[in-house]
Amino acid sequence: MNQDKGMITVCYDGSCPKCVKDRYHYEKLSGAARKNISWIDITGQDALLKKIGIDPQKALMELHVKNENQQVLSEIDAYILLMSKIPLLRPFAWLIGLPSISALSKQEASFIIKRIEGSRRWLYSRAPQITRQSAVNSSNLPNLAHIKGIRFIARELGWDKDHLKNWLLKYMKTQNIRGLDTESARKAFIGLRKIQTSRKAKS
């Protein structure tokens, strides 16, 4: 199968400066292959997202890509599809798509993806630490989108590390983002997003 053929559609948050930079980065690397990649700004498009089977809240936290067969893929699978369309990134798509990669390894693959994208180091960012205990509980760990989103919004709000820790302690009962489980990390992201939206509305 020729990976260059077939149009895919990538959903991105046009109100998020980091997301816009990511789009520019991929387009720059795509070269002639960009003709096979369509980008749709999901800002204010909740009805459209629901129509094609995407949860609007998840769309803000996870990458979603619609393939040639109109099937929607998310998170790592979406990155694999997007990278497979870009010749320079195709080897990485093959690597992170290996069947032998475990759930925890996929979380690490998410970290590698962001390094591949050439993004700036996130606020307070560190590579995931692997321990026996974390391997056991990996299915309940916050995914990369949660961690990235929380840190990015905190930076946009002008919060320093201590401010974010205090907010997490007050509302999430932990000072460490990595101490959150998947559901509480999702709630933290949504809560911060509401603060950000409210502040923009008042300005």
CATH architecture of the largest domain: 3-Layer(aba) Sandwich
Number of domains: 2
**Any idea what the radius of gyration is?**
17 Å
Helix content bin: 40-55%
Summarize the structure.
The protein is of the alpha+beta class and 203 residues long. It contains ten helices and four strands; from the N terminus they run E-H-E-H-H-E-E-H-H-H-H-H-H-H. The chain folds into two domains: 88 residues, Glutaredoxin (3-Layer(aba) Sandwich), CATH 3.40.30; 71 residues, no CATH class.
Quick tags:
2 domains; Glutaredoxin; 203 residues; alpha+beta; 8% strand; four-stranded mixed beta sheet; 10 helices
Write up this protein.
The chain is of the alpha+beta class. It is globular and about 50 Å long. It has helices at residues 17-30, 46-51, 56-61, 75-84, 90-96, 103-116, 132-136, 144-156, 161-172, 182-202; strands at 8-12, 37-41, 64-66, 72-74. It has a four-stranded mixed β-sheet with strand order 2-1-3-4, with helices on one face. It has two domains: 8-95, Glutaredoxin, CATH 3.40.30; 132-202, no CATH class.
